[in-house]
Amino acid sequence: MKRLFYSFLKKGGVKYSYKRIPMYLFRVLVLILCFWASSLFSEEAIPLSAQIERKRISTEVYFLEDSNKGLGIEKVSSREYSGKFKKSDMDPLNFGQTNFDYWIRITLKNSEKTQIRKILEIDYTNIDRVDFFAEDSSGKQELVNSSGMAFPYPVRKVNHRNFIYTLDFQPEQTRTFYLKLNTSGGLVFPLIVWSPETFYHHNADINLGLGLYYGIMCVMILYHLLIFLSTRDISYLFFVTNIFGFFGIQLVLTGHGFQYLWSEHPDLQRNLYVVFTGVCMSSLVLFAQKFLNTEENINRYLNYSLHFTWVVHALLIFFPLFLPPEFTVKVSLALSILAPSLVLIAASICFFKNYRPARYFLLAFSFLCISGMFVVLKFANLVGVSNWADDGLYIGSSMSALIFSFALADKINILKKEKEDAQRKIFEAQKENLEMQKTLNDSLETLVIERTKTIEEQKLDIEAKAKLIEKDLAIAGKIQFSLLPSILPKAHNVRIAFRCIPMLHVGGDFVDLISDRTGRALGIFICDVTGHGTGAAMVAAMVKMALADWSDYLSDPGYMLAKMRAQLMGKLNGNFVTATMITFYPESGRILIANAGHPEAILIRKSNGKHETYRPSGIAINEFLSTPNYQTLKTELTKGDKLILYTDGLPEARSREGDFYGDDRFLDLLKNFSELEPELFCNSVIGKIQHFTQEEQSSHDDMAMVVLEYLG
Fold first, then answer.
1. Average per-residue pLDDT for the chain
2. For 212, 281, 403, 433, which has the most beta carbons within 10 A of its beta carbon?
3. Residue 287 domain-assigned?
4. Do 639 and 564 share a structural domain?
């Protein structure tokens, strides 16, 4: 360009007239524009030398945004696209939350006259895809390596958590490299060129610091987990879960988790940030609610908001199962501001209410919030590079974990002191109670002596009255027993036996047997008065009196029941009387049966061993029931047949366990002893029932039975 300029000046010499001056000026102007254009479109290479150990080049590179994600290296490296690249003025390069492709063009020049080797580092690990292009021997750009969170970790040529590329330069050589980057989250990264020795020393220092940080977090997790297992205080479990979630976030952000733990599973590296954020934030809110006792110390609506927040973060854990990381990462970043803000407000309210545990909590959480806020704002492209944005989270989380440990210990001391105060108050109260008890005992002792004397006197009086009642009951029992048939009706072809066992000395079951004046008809009567004891026995005695003229009506037992009912009206006092009345003619074996709500009469046939039951219509005798019509049934007995009448105290007898003997078992019992004579029959049946109840006298009901055997 300079040669053209000099030839231009020489052309025509100095002897040009004033008429040629405008043409000279035009040519000068054209040359000036050529110089300006060449300087505008030229790209100055970044100089390197062996003496440069570390150089940040983020502001010296050029970038191109590919919103359609359709450009390839051929187009990007062509002269057509050369002018479309923009020079960066950012350090680090910060494209915020984006899903576009970004091309980075880096031109480096070896200023030395000897070969040199440099290392290019993208100082950020969470990028989905990074393609690195370099010139081949023909000067054409070719793909050297593709790596990132979309690929398994082992595809990287250099085993490092960040993206590392080794660059070799010949003497005074200029080389151009291209990077193609795409990610679903924040794209914020510095570009650094290192000398190999300096890089490895720096990397060792970084790993030492991170190792110390990881060690602190692991110790905190194990220490507080052991405390939880010993104290069973749920606050420690929430705190351990919070540290674990935060630790997981750091493993994702630093890339060490991808490098050492899940290197073969790139999907985990892309999604675990969201999962660990959900674990960390939900447990943080639960820990704050438990530790600060928010149910009592803050407004209920704020407490409801905390409930809602931890539920949302708990659901965030499952988002990666259904949604892509392009969406879930942005949601988790947005929610990461909500939970700490609400917890900070709750802690401040508790602090101003002079709730002692809130002091340490607020101090620890302030460290964590400030450091964490810088990181979130950094990835949201709202703040630039700073020590707090890069390393503050490690310092803040370590300090907060340490202070939280003091906070939990302080809370334990508070609870211990409260427990000691409560125990002291209990001891003092017990001491006062003992003194009061001594005073009361002294006064009660006198009262007890007096009361004991009174009780002894009352006891003697009660015993005397009980003996009198016992004597009266014994007399009443003898009187009631005298009402039972003392002499059985005699007939040469009939055997009769009965048993009547009251629950107490006296009872409501009653049996009567008569014969007419000629001896050709026998009357059998059995009844059951509701209730027990003296009252039922009195009603049974009145029934006996109502049967005074029974022998005159043996031919119609149904009529006799109606007549007896009429005589008892107004005297039952609410009691019920059930009864069965039978007239038997020994000469013919004919039998008449009437029933007033009593259990059926059972007839066991000798000829076939089968049984028949007879229960004519008729209701129990009671003052409040309408006047009934008592039906009389007729049947005949044959030789060896047995007729059994009984009260419900037999089948309803109960064992000590409360089980009933039952109708079916009672019927089987009657059949089993049907071959015995009436006396043995009664003894055997009653004996079996008493064996079942393990009582000689039933404690639940009276028992009565009449057995008639026809000899033909």
1. 83
2. 281
3. yes
4. yes
Q: Are 377 and 333 in contact (CB under 8 A)?
A: no
Omega within 30 of 0 (cis) for the link into 599: no
**Residue corresponding to tokens 């359609």:** 68
How far apart, in Å, do the first and last CA atoms of the chain sit?
159
pLDDT over threshold 70, residue 14: no
294 and 411 within one domain: yes
Higher pLDDT: 539 or 20? It is 539
SS3 552: helix
Range among 100-109, 137-146, 452-461 with highest mean pLDDT value: 100-109
Q: Where is 67: in which H helix or E strand?
A: none
CB atoms closer than 10 angstroms to residue 541:
17
How many structural domains does the chain have? 4
Q: What is the DSSP letter of 320?
A: G
Tell me whether residue 466 is in a domain. no
Is residue 560 assigned to a domain?
yes
Kindly state whether residues 180 and 56 are assigned to the same domain: yes
The predicted-structure confidence for 378-387, as pLDDT tens digits, reads as follows 655 555 555 5
2 pLDDT tier (thresholds 50, 70, 90): very low
The enclosing domain of 53 has a CATH number of: 2.60.40.2380
Q: Could you list the residue range(s) of the whole structural domain that residue 502 is in? A: 484-710
Q: Given the structure tokens 């988002």, which residue do they identify?
A: 319
The answer for residues whose C-beta is within 8 angstroms of residue 324's C-beta and 6 or more apart is 184
Instruction: Indicate whether 167 and 302 sit together in one domain.
Output: no
Mean pLDDT across the stretch 82-96?
A: 87
| Total residues belonging to the chain | 712
Dmax over CA atoms of the chain, in Å, equals 190
Same domain, 608 and 681: yes
Q: What is the pLDDT of residues 307-340, one digit of tens each?
A: 999 899 999 999 889 888 888 888 888 888 888 8
Domain end call among 383, 402, 420: 420
